[in-house]
Amino acid sequence: MLKGRMMDMPMMISSIIDYAADVRTDNVVVSNRVEGDIHRYTYGQARARAAQMAHALKELGVKEGERVATMAWNGYRHFELYFAISGIGAVCHTINPRLFADQIVYVTNHAEDKILFLDTSFIPIITPLVSQLPADMRFVLMCDRDAMPDCELPNPICYEDLISGQPDHIVWPVFDERAASSLCYTSGTTGNPKGVLYSHRSTYMHSMGMLTLAGSAGVTEGATVLPVVPLFHANAWGTPYVAPLVGANLVFPGGKLDGPSVFDLMDQEKVSSAWGVPTVWLGVLAEMRKRGRKPEGFECVLSGGSAVARSMIEEFQNDYGVTVVHGWGMTEMSPIGSTTIFGSTQKALPKDKQVDLKILQGRRMFTVDIRIVDEDGDPLPQDGEAFGELQVRGSGVIDGYHEDETASQAAMTADGWLKTGDVAKIDPEGFIQLVDRTKDVIKSGGEWISSIDLENAALGHPAIAECAVIAMPHPKWAERPMLVATLVEGQTVTASQINEFLADKVAKWWLPDDVIFVDTLPHTATGKLSKMTLRERFKDHVLPTVGQ
Ligand code: ADP
């Protein structure tokens, strides 16, 4: 090999905040604080406080590789911790407060967290668990000194006290880029949560990859970006790294994630690009309908985490002129895998054909390789017809889970690809179409029915607010689909009207054997519909078609 004559500079996360502080001097980070007011500062001020926190952590004895946990909403202190903890070579373990209590106990012990930084709103979650958390864990409350509550946590430290008096400058240490930087457990619908351990290199490379899609998702210089997706879920989809790099402002919503609150914050801060899961957009759209307008300046929404319905894309785009970009990914992928990136060919298509493409999961991001394979693991053609398990590899993709050999082996193929657990088609232009989760697909009489497609079609009915299609046992067909739905306020509809509506949208044998209306649908800790809970809830239900 003829070695290149270039510096071997390790890819450090700290270089991102340094770059933003030095160059993106016009931008601001705006936070809706738990204290109830709005806080704003520049990336330069963020770096100064991250530096103070880095010094404070070292003073507390935090060493390289040790885990420091956070349980916090999206806000400036959480953003500072992202850089302070990783910056000194420790590992920022973001805990999802929506995990069950025993999962929180599991992840803190599995990660061996030394310190827990928490928003005061999570004190009631943590207090009853203290005796089961790692021994000698220290608790830092992320609030002002005068907002420190009376609480039963042992010796709580105030965040502001911790950093006060520390130098606001640091020369970040440079170390092996493959060192772990952050840790995020997947919600684990079955079994224990699994730890996804990111490195400086993977985070840096994922951020570079995101630069290939950021522009098409409205994250450009001078844009104002709202990650509704939490910092405790898969790095808020990379927004805390990519926004500072491109020179976009960041708006953090704190704990107020309902439609009216998100609308107001967006309106007030003139958010141009907002990122989150479809459930959040249901709430925001309802508010837009109510007020008969969009939040001022709103241009683009990136919706990911679950399939986005055609009806949602059309309402955003046709009624309000808001572009929808659809993204797919996994915590295990840092997390972005693909987004609906359009070239001139797609942009030249008629509007409804563009929507046909936007309900697909999009094209791969730079740094991510994709393939689909059949049941024997042999690659399938990318012809838009063949479907099989979607597998990925790349510099932002896991090669196993943190300290979990069984889960690691189950997740990876012999040739080093990650099995996503998603079933997909890929068309010749590279658009991925998710057919289903391997565990959610409905196998009726030897044929497959895509629950995602069926849900998407049903969501086109104006009375349906949210819905899930699950497989129900059937003696003749093995499994048949059942639709469980919530209704838009004030609307009524019958099961047979839903089936009439679906009749010209899906194959006849796809029509659900039963339609059930419920008040609410269960969601997982990451905001996805929990089909496992639904299957459990309806395990004794008998389809009306059984015996026919
Ligand atoms: P969790 O912590 O719940 O596992 P992830 O975000 O890591 O959360 O979940 C990843 C899974 O979510 C994917 O494998 C896929 O099944 C589903 N998913 C993500 N984005 C989409 C999308 N755009 N359309 C359909 N499913 C999606």
- Counted by DSSP, the helix tally is 17
Approximate shape = globular
Radius of gyration: 23 Å
Specify the structural class. Answer: alpha/beta
Which helices and strands, and how do they pair?
Elements: H1 14-23, E1 28-32, E2 38-42, H2 43-59, E3 67-71, H3 76-87, E4 91-94, H4 101-111, E5 115-118, H5 123-126, E6 138-141, E7 157-158, H6 159-163, E8 180-185, E9 195-199, H7 200-214, E10 224-227, H8 239-246, E11 249-252, H9 259-269, E12 273-276, H10 278-291, E13 300-304, H11 310-320, E14 323-329, E15 336-339, H12 344-347, H13 351-358, E16 363-364, E17 368-373, E18 387-394, H14 405-411, E19 418-426, E20 432-437, E21 442-444, E22 447-449, H15 451-459, E23 464-474, E24 478-487, H16 495-502, E25 514-517, H17 531-537
Parallel strand pairs: 1-11, 3-4, 3-5, 4-8, 5-6, 6-7, 10-11, 10-12, 12-13, 13-14, 24-25
Antiparallel strand pairs: 1-2, 8-9, 14-15, 15-16, 17-18, 18-19, 19-20, 21-22, 23-24
This protein binds adenosine-5'-diphosphate.
Adenosine-5'-diphosphate (ADP) binds at residues 186-187, 234, 304-307, 326-331, 335, 361, 420-422, 434, 437, 524, 526, 528.
